[in-house]
Design brief:
The structure holds 2 protein chains of 2 kinds. In chain A, 34% of the residues lie in helices and 18% in strands. By secondary structure, chain A is an alpha/beta fold. Chain A has a 5-stranded parallel β-sheet. A 5-stranded parallel β-sheet of chain A has the order 6-13-7-8-9. A 3-stranded antiparallel β-sheet of chain A has the order 10-11-12, with no helix packed on it. The radius of gyration of chain A is 23 Å and the shape is globular. The two termini of chain A are 43 Å apart. Chain B is of the alpha/beta class. In chain B, 26% of the residues lie in helices and 30% in strands. Chain B has 9 helices and 17 strands. In chain B, the strands form 4 sheets. Chain B has a 7-stranded mixed β-sheet, sandwiched between helices. A 5-stranded antiparallel β-sheet of chain B has the order 5-6-2-1-7. In chain B, helix 5 packs parallel to helix 6. The chains are: A alpha/beta, B alpha/beta. At the A-B interface, strand 5 and helix 13 of A face strand 8, helix 8 and helix 9 of B.
Chain lengths: 467, 288
């Protein structure tokens, strides 16, 4: 390896961002990415530890020190090939992975100072490759003519399909929506993950030979059994957790109460924020987003960009318990999102016409830690108050869609409606594999990708064992 | 892309148009009572529309669409042989008809387009079908001949008396129920009503005192149609249901019509505004 001195700076190189005041009024990407020089400087912070702890934190086992070494040397093409040998969606992961909880949490540099900016570097390498004019087209691997069906084109499905395709399988993805990408296109907003990037990553897969059938709802248009009848030898279910949960408090069906899914789908997938698209969205003024996960932050920041004057995060626990990524919380705060912590909504108020006028909350105090160690919120007696808003967005999680559950024999399900599968995605029904939110309930993009990868390995073993 | 195999206006006013769409994946399982979602083009919205017919062998699905808002008006400008961007389904649950013997199917306006395949499927199953079709006036009446072939008794009515009987569907439904009692005939074991929300509300009031189970087909505002957004929620028997996956058929005596009517009008301003800005040069044709 090149004998370059390690950059001992204790902090990550800053990644430039759009000014918060400016970006709160547009849907352009917030983070602007490293340039080549900064990327090389940042990569030089890697100690190349002998046992690479960072790799153990990556659900798709990216060979992190190897690609960082190539970035440090300025050989970005080689870095790209190292990443994509295990990760089909680097431009996506570089943007939306919670690296601080994954690879970067294991980085030795993080013990004293900040970890290496692995996510930022992955993003840089992927973007560098994407922007390159004379890059070679992805090559379709030699086919082994075994046909595999993948249900859902979200992170789990895309990863599973990409890995199987690289092994030579003939893969067809069935996607319910008119656009491919699952949560990457309907859920995560443009300003965090530009849709052009998702489209380009998917195009790489189709160029490799992955087929995608859009507008195909498994469980409605075709059943899992019919996929087998049609000649598919194995099926991977990566249908996600699409069903929104509501609070079940009075007033939840008033006009102006959205699930986060609805707000985000209208805005991200249907592009309601653009004048030239037909899907409407209300011009609201004051928005309360209930919940404080990444989806809640997305919903709040989308609301701000749609022109809301005040956007509040209403959350029953405190600042230390916020489940969203730190970076998302900081971005939201910088853009003027107001946090109403330790407040539990108990009713939504409306006027005579049924429009939302406010959300009633009970103040909370933090009590004893629960079994997970999180301090439990306890209501303060007689502390009800009303936050004046015209719109309420419920962002408290989702559960798996029942369409496949209701139409597929031989599978078993968890109490919460997820498909039961082991770590390799093996379900109770031979030939049917599952992974991602369809199994776990709402989790992260990268965990779903890890599950897709495991599913691909299990499918490969299953097909080979059949011979 | 999905090809428009047939396009045909169904009434003199040209307010309702039939489109037969090549969509083998939808035709494979489509049944009466279910719906599809179509999207005209990249900029288009997703619009739910009920299945009016299907041909499994040809791989086509028929829908009958009334020009109401921007998207449906633009759909009417799509010609036979043209393509639309998306057509997905079948969505929702098919209408239940197991064990029924005598049914009154009531359609109001374009609701007849949805009621027709239900009556047809019931008729083919040997269920006795009385069909009541109501319209505002003669110029918008659809399916005059087709409805005769799928019903044992057909009553067509218009608000102004320009076609068929004069009066509202509620009056004729009550007459039929009363006649069954007076003439000692078996009572309807089900009423199925499809039409404007307000008509279905009043039909529910008609059947309630007689205790006749009444099913209505709802078409609230939707985005995805697969249970993902929750936009189409309706209150049924005090519980929140999603029309797209739990419906679209619901027990009329349990539906909270007040909330239904309010939710249906939520985007009215945006709708009206959008309809004003359909391209006045191309008449609604976009990108082409």
């Amino acid at each position: 390896m090149a004998n370059l001195k390690v950059n001992m700076s204790l902090t990550k190189n800053e990644m430039p961002e759009q000014d918060p005041v400016v970006r709160a009024g547009n849907f352009d990407e917030v983070a602007l990415g490293y340039d080549a020089e900064t990327a090389m400087k940042e990569a030089a912070r890697c100690l190349d530890c002998k046992n690479s702890p960072c790799r153990t934190g990556c659900p798709v086992s990216v060979k992190i020190p190897r690609f960082l070494e190539k970035v440090r040397e300025g050989d970005f093409d080689a870095a790209y090939h190292i990443i994509t040998s295990t990760n089909s969606l680097p431009a996506v992961c570089g943007r939306v992975c919670p690296q601080e909880k994954q690879c970067e949490s294991k980085c030795v540099r993080g013990i004293k100072g900040e970890s290496v900016g692995i996510g930022r570097l992955e993003r840089f390498v992927a973007d560098y490759h994407m922007a390159k004019a004379d890059k070679p087209e992805p090559v379709a691997p030699q086919s082994n003519s075994h046909r595999i069906a993948v249900i859902g084109s979200g992170p789990a499905g895309l990863t599973c399909a990409g890995d199987l395709c690289k092994m030579g399988y003939d893969v067809t993805i069935f996607e319910a929506f008119h656009k491919s990408g699952g949560v990457l296109v309907y859920g995560i907003p443009q300003f965090r993950l530009p849709k052009e990037i998702v489209a380009a990553e998917i195009e790489n897969l189709t160029k490799m030979g992955v087929k995608i059938v859009n507008n195909a709802i498994i469980g409605k248009s075709i059943t899992v059994d019919e996929l087998f009848e049609d000649g598919f030898e194995a099926v991977f279910i990566g249908s996600g957790a699409g069903l929104p949960q509501f609070l079940h408090i009075p007033g939840e069906n008033l006009l102006g109460v959205y699930s986060a899914n609805e707000l985000l789908t209208r805005t991200n997938l249907m592009k309601a924020y653009r004048d030239d698209y037909d899907t409407p969205i209300k011009h609201f003024h004051n928005v309360a987003v209930v919940g404080a996960g990444n989806v809640a932050m997305d919903a709040a920041r989308v609301s701000k960009r749609l022109g809301a004057e005040h956007v509040y995060i209403v959350y029953r626990r405190g600042a230390d318990e916020l489940p969203a990524r730190k970076e998302e919380v900081e971005h939201a705060e910088a853009e003027g999102i107001e946090f109403k912590l330790l407040n539990n909504p108990c009713a939504i108020h409306g006027d005579e016409d049924g429009h939302v006028t406010g959300i009633e909350c009970i103040r909370q105090e933090l009590g004893e830690p629960d079994e997970k160690g999180r301090r439990k919120p306890v209501p303060v007696p007689d502390s009800n108050w009303v936050l004046d808003v015209d719109t309420v967005v419920i962002a408290i999680g989702t559960s798996p869609n029942p369409l496949i559950r209701n139409t597929t024999e031989g599978l078993t399900f968890t109490r919460k409606g997820g498909i039961e599968a082991d770590e390799g995605g093996v379900t109770a029904r031979p030939g049917v594999f599952a992974g991602g939110d369809a199994v776990t309930g709402s989790a992260t993009v990268i965990l779903a990708m890890g599950a897709g990868k495991a599913g691909a390995r299990s499918i490969d073993e299953f097909i080979k064992s059949k011979k | 892309m999905y090809k428009v195999v047939t396009k045909r206006y169904l009434n003199d006013a040209k307010s309702i148009c039939l489109f037969e769409i090549e969509a083998p994946l939808v035709a494979r399982h489509a049944r009466a009572g279910q719906f599809v979602i179509f999207r005209l083009d990249e900029q288009g919205e997703r619009v739910p529309v009920s299945v009016a017919g299907y041909d499994r062998e040809k791989g086509t699905v028929t829908v009958m669409v009334q020009a109401a808002g921007k998207t449906t008006k633009m759909l009417h400008t799509v010609e036979q042989g043209d393509y639309i961007s998306d057509f997905v389904g079948p969505l929702g649950k098919a209408t239940e008809m197991e064990g029924l013997k005598k049914v009154c199917v009531v359609g109001g306006g374009v609701g007849c387009a949805i009621a027709y395949p239900i009556a047809k499927e019931m008729h083919e199953k040997g269920i006795n079908v009385t069909f009541i079709g109501g319209f505002r006036s003669a110029d918008i009446v659809i399916l005059k001949e087709e409805l005769k072939t799928v019903s044992d008794k057909l009553i067509m009515c218009t608000d102004d008396g320009t076609y068929g009987e004069k009066g509202f569907t509620t009056v004729f439904l009550k007459n039929e129920i009363e006649a069954n009692i007076k003439e000692n005939q078996p009572q309807f074991d089900r009423v199925i009503a499809i039409g404007p929300d307000i008509m279905m509300k009043f039909l529910a009031d008609v059947t309630r005192p007689y205790g006749i189970k009444t099913i209505i087909s709802l078409d609230p505002i939707m985005v995805d149609g697969t249970g993902m957004c929750g936009c189409c929620r309706v209150i049924v028997g005090g519980e929140t249901k999603f029309a797209c996956v739990d419906g679209p058929d619901f027990d009329a005596h349990e539906v909270d019509f007040d909330s239904l009517l309010k939710r249906a009008a939520f985007y009215k301003d945006e709708q009206d505004e959008a309809a004003k800005h359909i391209c006045k040069i191309t008449g609604g044709k976009r990108n082409g």
